[in-house]
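[Automated response] Your request has been received and processed.

Submitted sequence:
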Amino acid sequence: MAFIRQYVMPLLVVLTFVFALVVVSARIFLPSDLAAPAPVTEVAPSPPQAVLPPALDQLVSGPTS
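Generated structure:
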């Protein structure tokens, strides 16, 4: 058990960080159009909200006084 704790687990942690470093650094070698952030598009307006019955409307939005 001590072998796993002293040698295997630290090796897995180091390999995980090295893998993450390589993956993040790979963006340097991508074509410029792939390395750019994803474009942000405008969200379509939401459809009009349904009309609720009066009793349910008071529960959802509170009393209208």
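Summary generated for your ticket: Helices lie at 2-25, 32-35, 54-61. Residues 24 and 47 are 40 Å apart (CA to CA).
If you did not submit this request, please reply to this message.
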